[in-house]
Amino acid sequence: MDENEDVLVNVVQGVGLITLNRPKAINSLTHPMVNAISPVLTDWAADDDVQTVVIDGAGERGLCAGGDLVALYHSARADGSVARSFWYDEYRLNAQIGRFPKPYVALMDGIVMGGGVGIAVHGSVRVVTDTTKMAMPEVGIGFIPDVGGTLILSRAPGLLGLHAALTGATFGAGDAIAMGFADHFVPHASIAAFKEAVIADGVDAALAAYAAEAPASQFLAQREWIDRCYAGATPLDIVAALRAEDAGPATEAADLIEAKSPSSVSVALEAVRRAAKLDTLEDVLRQEYRTTCGALRSHDFEEGIRAQVIDKDRNPKWSPASLAAVTTADVEAYFAPADRELEFS
């Protein structure tokens, strides 16, 4: 097998090993990486000699920080075709992971955001550690939560998923398990030994030896005010409710939301609510592909990446500039059919 240098693939004792290998970029996903992983999973699904798959990231910083934003920015400035093609194949890979017929063990150590969530959380054995920093931070770059993330956000306890989606806030192992992004906690110091145990003894024995009690969920502890505030009909209602709470986490949440793209926050709220009524990961990914193409047509996606990644001035000029200025028609436009709808083979 020709190994893409950015993805290392190996089979050891019946365990298929995939390592994302762009440590300087926190293993951010590129289109060639997506196209390297998918055929490997197809082969392994049909190979009786491969019993289990383990995916992890090279280096100390994390599994995967998301997609390659610089490439997406340049595509957005051109005709968008490179970005659309990447997302099309990425979402098909997310679905492929979701229906993979064998144990798929994702080691979510360190940073796991955006596209990194997509290659991990649809697997069957999702492991977090005390260094896990997870987020769906898309609204901060004029984008919408994707990679099947809105499926999990929509099914989190109460309205915790809306809190994560609209603030883009980072959360740790306890919150990841509480919200349905992960299943097991293994201490960071044991993660290498855990991986070796999966290879030597199998998933169940490795979990029995190394899984521990996860830290308490901060989000669950705050669920009372989260459920109350995020029940608002519109983003404006939600921010007003947050501002009406005692100073502290609710005020911080309101500040976070108001710093994000008003369009993205408005669409993310609608996307998570619609995802709650969809039945399958594939259905949700089809909807996400529409909202993603909608973001690509918007002003805020290019501007958000410019401010955060290209110029790094951290001062995006959103348009519309406020939540009050975003119309129902603006939001609906993101859910319009894509020129080429996402399909699964």
From TrEMBL:
SUPFAM superfamilies: ClpP/crotonase
Keyword terms, alphabetized: Hydrolase
Ranges in coiled-coil conformation: none
The keyword Hydrolase is annotated on this UniProt entry: yes
Reaction equation(s) it catalyzes: 3-hydroxy-2-methylpropanoyl-CoA + H2O = 3-hydroxy-2-methylpropanoate + CoA + H(+)
A GO biological process held by the record: L-valine catabolic process
Highest taxon, organism lineage: Bacteria
Broadest EC class assigned to this enzyme: hydrolase
Any one GO cellular component localisation term in the record: cytosol
Keyword Hydrolase: yes
EC number: 3.1.2.4
Residues annotated as domain Enoyl-CoA hydratase/isomerase: 15-335
Pfam family, one: ECH_2
GO MF entries: 3-hydroxyisobutyryl-CoA hydrolase activity
PANTHER family: 3-HYDROXYISOBUTYRYL-COA HYDROLASE, MITOCHONDRIAL (PTHR43176:SF3), 3-HYDROXYISOBUTYRYL-COA HYDROLASE-RELATED (PTHR43176)
Name of the featured protein: 3-hydroxyisobutyryl-CoA hydrolase
Species the sequence originates in: Mycolicibacterium tusciae
